[in-house]
Structure formats: C-alpha cells, structure tokens
Amino acid sequence: MLPSQTYVNISFFQPHAFLMIGIPGHEAVHGWISIPFSSMYTVALTGNCLILLAVRKTPSLHQPMYYFLSMLALTDVGLTLSTLPTTLAVLWFDHRLIGFNACLVQMFFLHSFSVVESSVLLAMSFDRFVAISNPLRYATVLTNNVIIRIGMAIVARAALSLFPGPFLLKRLNFCPNKILLSHSFCFHPDVMRRACADITINIFYGLYVVLSTGGIDSLFIILSYILILHIILGLASPRERIQAFNTCVSHILAVFVFFIPGITMSMIHRFGRHLSPIAHALVAYVYLMVPPVLNPIIYSVKSKPIREAMLRMLKRKGQD
User: Fold this and answer.
1) Are the beta carbons of 48 and 73 closer than 8 angstroms?
2) Span of the secretion signal (predicted)?
3) Residue 11 domain flag
4) Do the bridges between strand 97-99 and strand 17-19 make them parallel or antiparallel, or are there none, so unpaired?
C-alpha cells in the first residue's frame, strides 16, 4: 500500500504511484488466471520471434511481403513486452504499484506499438495492392530502400502522435483518493480519468490520435481492398481469382483481429461506462494480447513458405 500522507493546502498533486488491478473481483484466483495469461504471452513471443528468425534465415523469404510481416511480428513482440511485466507482476506476486513516471512511459510505448501495428497493416494492404495490380513491377516498386523508408515513416508517425500524451497528463492535477487504475497496465483514457481537473484537452487529443491513425488507416485499408476486389473480379479465370484472393486472406484476418477489438475497446471507454469493470478489463486484454497470439498462427497456417521456414527453425533448434 502507499504510505499515508497528509494532504493539506495542496493546490497541485501528482501521485507517486498508481495501484493496478488484474481481473476485478477475481483477485483470489489470480494465480490460476495467470496460467492462461502466461501461456498467451509465451505463444506470442515464441511465434513472433520464430517468424523473425524464419524471414532472416531464409533467403527465399527476402521479399517485400515477408519484410512487412517481419515488421508486424516485431511490433507484436513490442506490444507484448509493453504489458507483460506489470500484468504478470499483478497476477503472480500481487505487486500492484507502478510509479507515476513509469506509468507514463508504459503508456507511451503501449499506444505507440498499437499505432505502429495499425500503420504496418496499412502498409501490408498497399503491398497486396501492388502485388495484384502490377505483379511484374512488384519488386521494382517495393525495393528495399522503399520498405526501409516506409518503416521509418511508420515509427516517426507513432512517436510524433504519442509524444504529447505524457506531457498533457503531467500538467493535470490528480485526486489523492483516485489512484486505482482499471487494468494491470497504464492506458491513456484510464489514467486521465484519475485527474481532478478539466481533461477536455486530453479527451480531444485522444480522439485525434485514434482518428488520425487507426481511423485513417482502416479507411485506406478498406479502399485498398475495394480496388483489389475490382482487380480480382476482372481476372479471366476463376482459378486466377482464387489464387489472387488467397494471397490476401492472412492479411484480412490480421486486420479483423486487430481492428475489431480496438474499435470495441474505444467504444466501451467512451460510451460503456455503465458496464462492469470486468467487461472493460477483458476487452482491453483481448485487444492487447490476442493479435500478437493469433498473427503468427494465422500466417503459419495460411502461408506455406512461412510455415515451412518456421518448422525448419524449430528442427534446427531441436538438433542444437
């Protein structure tokens, strides 16, 4: 618990730490709940690291599509590591304190990786559009230099979008009796509502980030697939249509896995305050943990080159 303090004549207050929570109302069984959480973290880290190793060690995978997949896997590793320390600390050891500045740092990286993932999925839709609309120029359009520039632009976009967030929170006056967070990690809408001050700027900032990143990205992804569908329907033979569409299935599933929980969580935080705390917690965990778990599974099942390369990595590790 936090040491007792006397709050007398304080005009501006920031807590030394926040108290995190695991699954609200189920603290007595956190030990059991930690088992599926630990398993999901293990699957996410193992699967995405295997993809990174497979692409790096397999020359035939040194193509734009798999470079973007590596970006997605690396982002999922970062997103997983953003929440793993505090979530497992709460579930395993009931260590619920997180320092104020540490909370802001975690919040920055958590939201940054989310923005990066959204941007990578948009870049992957562009990759599929180029591959289907102009396959003969695919390698000349998406050169290594172009891919590196896209990656740098994605990182810069996320950093610039999320950079003001911690500073907008540090200017707020917080309530001494409102230090209990709703999750086992620091989430911007959750942290800002602990303040005893006008958070209008923070609300508009959060809305701006959501619309200018995930909102725009989702619209461009939909537009790209409208164009892709138009091209596929224009192909002569049904076999060519099926082959072209099959190259997009993994990406479409990854888009649904990321954006549907993300949209659900945004709607709940803005319009679902009447819902139980456990509903808020579960939706947040699904949004942050399910995509890193499912993406490697989706691509290993739907992409034969990735599946074979990952199996080779596992056999090589087994022989070592």
Assistant:
1) yes
2) none
3) no
4) antiparallel
Domain that holds residue 277: 17-317
Closest by CA position to 128, among listed 218, 55, 224 = 224
CATH number at residue 274: 1.20.1070.10
Question: 10 Å Cβ neighbour count for 62?
Answer: 11
143 burial type by CB count under 10 A (0-12 exposed, 13-18 middle, 19+ buried): exposed
Q: What is the pLDDT of residues 123-159, one digit of tens each?
A: 999 999 999 999 989 989 999 999 999 999 999 999 9
Burial of 109: CB neighbours in 10 Å, binned 0-12, 13-18, 19+: middle
Let me know: does 192 contact 202? Beta carbons within 8 Å: yes
128's tokens = 């599929």
Q: How many CB atoms lie within 10 A of CB 216?
A: 14
CA angle, residues 42, 44, 47, in degrees to nearest 5: 100
Two structure tokens written together for 118: 């959204």
Model confidence, pTM: 0.92
What is the rounded radius of gyration, in angstroms, for the C-alpha atoms of the chain? 22
What are the pLDDT digits (tens) for 159-170?
A: 999 999 999 999
